[in-house]
Amino acid sequence: MKKVIFNTPDHKVIFFEELTPASAVQANQVLIIHKDEGMLLDPGGHKVFSKLLSELAVYIPPSQIRYIFLSHQDPDIVASINGWLMTTKAEAYISKLWMRFLPHFGLDSQLEGRVVPIDDNGTVLTLGGDCKLYILPAHFLHSEGNFQVYDPCSKILFSGDLGASLGQDYFFVEDFDKHIKYMEGFHRRYMVSNKVLRFWANMVKDLDIEMIVPQHGAIFKGKDMVKRFIEWIENLEVGVDLLTQDIYKVPSG
Fold first, then answer.
1. Cα–Cα–Cα angle for 141, 72, 86, rounded to 5 degrees
2. What average pLDDT score do residues 185-205 get?
3. Which Pfam family, just one, is annotated for this protein (predicted)?
């Protein structure tokens, strides 16, 4: 399934879901188009590649994809990177921490020069000549080298695994309180600490955000829903906040 979630004459955002096989974790892919250039976000694994390439070509020729953004190193994000670099002229951006991990996903040596390491403090990329895309630090949410994309042209924050939900059957979150049950378990296990969540909330709360689009699950649409999510995550205990010595025991055998 695909859906155009932002559309003006110069700027489009297309959201793809349910391209993954049923046995795999659900994952979203996103295409940002500004004028005649595109950025593909978190393109997915090998079994997504051919379907996404076909769907994407409806909106823009693959040769006009300028950037491929990889929020972190998980296989549901980077496993297809060799195919994308072979079929486009794009540069791929990923945390500098993961540069030497990509060859383990089959990245050919002759393509390595088109993978650009992102320093810990992030960067700004320009798409279509005049749309600045902000690559925001989101380390330990959940990956040690992790980034998000803020697109001020659409006022969308692409949040990666932060905000992910599993098992819901709707596209946009309409009732935040009822949606919590689809998010809470994932965040408590995968996110590292409340301290990091508070740093993140302080970074983004003054941005002009109309939508938060996670890599898994439903979209938060509208300023009120965005605010609810930021306030919820800012106060959530997760990861090491919840650990006790009881977890760290030699198994009985």
1. 165
2. 98
3. ODP
CA–CA separation, 80 vs 73, rounded Å? 12
pLDDT digits (tens, 9 = 90+) for 86-107: 999 999 999 999 999 998 888 8
Q: Band of the pLDDT at 27, cuts 50, 70, 90?
A: confident
Residues recorded for the chain: 253
Query: Rounded to the nearest 5°, which phi and psi values hold at 106?
Result: 90, 15
Which residues span the domain enclosing 222?
2-239
Q: pTM, whole model, 2 decimals?
A: 0.95
186 domain residue, yes or no: yes
The span from the CA of 123 to the CA of 140, in Å, is 18
In a domain? residue 252: no
Taking the chain, what is the end-to-end CA distance rounded to the nearest angstrom? 48
Q: Report helix angle 176-190 to 223-234, nearest 10.
A: 40
Nearest of 45, 12, 48, 18 to residue 31 by alpha carbon: 12
Number of helices (H) and strands (E) in the chain: give both, helices first.
Answer: 6, 13
pLDDT tens-digit map of 141-176: 999 999 999 999 999 999 999 999 999 989 999 999
Q: Is residue 210 in some structural domain?
A: yes
CATH of the domain at 15: 3.60.15.10
Residue 18: CB partners within 8 Å, gap ≥ 6? Answer: 1, 26
Edge to edge, what strands does the sheet with 211-214 contain?
Answer: 123-127, 131-137, 147-151, 156-160, 211-214, 220-221
Number of structural domains found in the chain: 1
Q: How far is CA 20 from CA 50, 73, 77, 161, in A?
A: 11, 18, 11, 16
